[in-house]
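Marked as duplicate of an earlier ticket. Keeping the data here for the record.
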Amino acid sequence: MTVANETLMDRDYKAAMQPFFGDAEIGSWVNGAMMAGRGEAFDLIDPATGKAFLELKDAGAEVVDAAMQAAEKGQRVWWALPAAERGRILWRIGQQVRDHLEQLAVLETVSAGKPIRDTRVEVLKVAEMFEYYAGWADKLHGDVIPVPTSHLNYTRPEPYGVITQITPWNAPIFTAGWQLAPALCAGNAAVLKPSEMTPLTSLALGGLSKKAGLPDGVITILTGLGMTTGVAATTHDVTRKVVFVGSPKTGAAIAAQAAANIVPCVLELGGKSANIVFEDADLRRAVLGAQAAIFSGAGQSCVAGSRLLVQRSVLDRFVDMLVDGANQIPVGDPLDPATQIGPINNLAQYQTIEGLIKAGCQEGAEVLAGGARPEGGICADGYFLRPTVLGNVRNDMGIAREEIFGPVVSVIPFDDEADAIAIANDSKFGLAGAVWTNRVDRAHRVAANVRAGTFWINSYKTINVMSPFGGFGHSGYGRSSGKEGLMEYMQPKSVWTETAENPPAAFGYAPE
């Protein structure tokens, strides 16, 4: 294992925030301006140092209520605009993101701990999200249905109104754009509550949207805690649909809250994805793919390839290559462009990962690489963990059943194709998966038979806004991108118009 630098680069948090917030007190983005929180104070922690760098206040129910009223008004203004004009504004938001790419990437890195090489890519993808849905804005139309009566019957796709969206700490600006762009394209207003640990880039996105000409109230960013601000938003009478990205436990609770108000949900939850390597695969390429599948983003990804299924005939050779590669991946300061693995986002998650590794070893798993904090240097104080490879794992162990959300891969051997598919499907999750093989027939059979919302052949972790994304089982329901994701934000209205000059009376008495 190598480190990207010997000393932490100087962190100038104020300089990172200045382009977006100036000297204003940071709160929630409500009705096109910053609104101070009304609740208890909490700190933002830099994962690379473990130190607090900013104090914020929980928004609370009062701010949420003001935000919802503004969103309701803003949505009416937004929906009244010509569709092409909405598209032009979305495109300009994408351009604002492009114009501030480096500043947004630095802010994401210092506040969320993601390597700068990753945040630059993710910010660019946010620009692509708004640009993609900008193109859809004036292409949403209904159908004329040939009903067997004298009526003209047609459908109108209409927005829900105000959408409440909850996004996680692992990819703050990426998941913000992922949810906001399609919601706005469909004519809704969006009230987004990012994780209280990583709200800054979402707030910055709200400010940039105003510069692009978005009417006030159409995007709201709530800064606050889940049990107060989050619950107030998801249960508010103005909320017409809830979108949640996060853990299955929290997602189930939010879905229950929404159901009490007869409000639908889209849930994008966890995963325990199977990455399957057959003996005929290009093993070098598969090793690189397996590393990217689990170690990029420090494994803090819902689609992480945390279960690595390797055919028994090549198991030893493949594991040797994997361990050698894991020990050489640069871990260190996320602001250093050479860093490939930064810190875990927060202390609670860091401790959860440590506990799961320990429990796995108690069940018989063996640490083949990593498993601990890098020694000395820049990693002494932050939430760093070396890329970890666990061998001697069975699929019935807790380490193979529960989502770890860290740079930890469990290697599980299999004998043949049927065995691999059975192991892959033996999970409550169904978010993603992959197969590595040079046999075309096998590749497509496995893709068809593994129960997952996204599946890759001879690659891993390629995601694009044009393609639908979502899971099965405990990985959630609904879709978050592509045309399918856009449809989640609209509901069809059926309109009937009588066209007959003298329609026959079907009921009642006509006046004389």
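See parent ticket for discussion. Residues 60-80 form the longest helix (21 residues).
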